[in-house]
Amino acid sequence: MPYRTAFITGASSGIGRALALRLARDGVHVALSARRRDALEDLARDIERRCGKADIYPLDVSDPARVEATLRGADDDLGGIDLVVANAGVSGGQRWSGELDYEATAEVISVNVQGAVATLLALMDRMVERRRGHLVGVSSLAQYRGLPRSATYSASKAFLSTFLEGLRVDLRQAGLAVTDVRPGFVETAMTAGNTHRMPFMVQAPDAAEIIVRGIEKRSPVVAFPWQLATVVRSAALLPPSLYDRAVTRAKG
User: What integer pLDDT is reported at residue 234 of this predicted model?
Assistant: First the structure.
């Protein structure tokens, strides 16, 4: 692993927790961020028992001013953050579009879009000045098409993927790397409540391993599992009429 320090949002569980453990195993000093202080403290103790280094920064990413202050404080504390992982996200639940309301939709956007953007931009000026750094955003394979009962979630991840691509093409000249992580179904608390089929489920530690390999290679996109990634990329090429019929049949 080429990086010495990392800041991870949504680190208290799921992909974020597994990624923190995996990076710490490689000697990365991890700054752990999430809303739940108790879960962060448990994770930090776990990392330190394994001879890793971890600090905690409790944070709600829906507060952009607090996001910037927290990341810049961590950057000062750790002598510079090399790797920023915008992982915090919410699903908003499986809701038929006819039952959506503005408040629930805005909550998803405040975390998945505004929170991710605030996280990715918080240290931008410092990274550009240092000409060193790697920005990682965890979007989803759901970003390829609008999914039934997941209109807001799909749209939020589509925004993040496109935003990351724009950052990537701009920041190459500044020496920064940008990686868009697009997971399929990963066994986490977020997917535990899903009632639909979840093919090619990946365990969180396996997901972390795939992500770390992508970070090490400075890959622009890390999409997994490959089987599901192939399916959704193909679905992205379907005209709307065929896509609508295919999704309706898949729902049964």
Answer: 86
The span from the CA of 145 to the CA of 224, in Å, is 16
DSSP code of 202? Answer: E
CB-CB contact of 13 with 186 (8 Å) = no
Structural domain boundaries, residue 183 = 5-251
CATH number at residue 41: 3.40.50.720
In the chain, how many domains are there?
1
The CA distance from 246 to 211, in Å, is 30
Q: Which residues in the chain belong to E strands, given as ranges?
A: 5-8, 29-32, 54-56, 83-86, 134-138, 177-183, 186-187, 202-203, 221-224
Please identify every residue annotated as catalytic: 153
Angle at the Cα of 250 from the Cα atoms of 248 and 252, rounded to 5 degrees:
75
**195, 94 Cβ separation under 8 angstroms:** yes
Q: How many other CB atoms are there within 10 angstroms of residue 152's CB atom?
A: 24
Three-state DSSP at 68 gives helix
Q: Which amino acid is at 189?
A: A
> Phi-psi category of 151—alpha, beta or left, where left has phi over 0 and alpha has psi -120 to 50?
alpha
Cβ atoms of 72 and 123 closer than 8 Å: yes
Q: What does the alpha-carbon distance between residue 87 and residue 76 come to, in Å, rounded to a whole number?
A: 21
- Among residues 103, 90, 106, 120, the alpha carbon closest in space to that of 10 is found at 90
130-169 pLDDT per residue, tens = 999 999 999 999 999 877 777 899 999 999 999 999 999 9
C-beta separation of 117 from 163 below 8 A = yes
Is the full-model pTM beyond 0.85?
Answer: yes
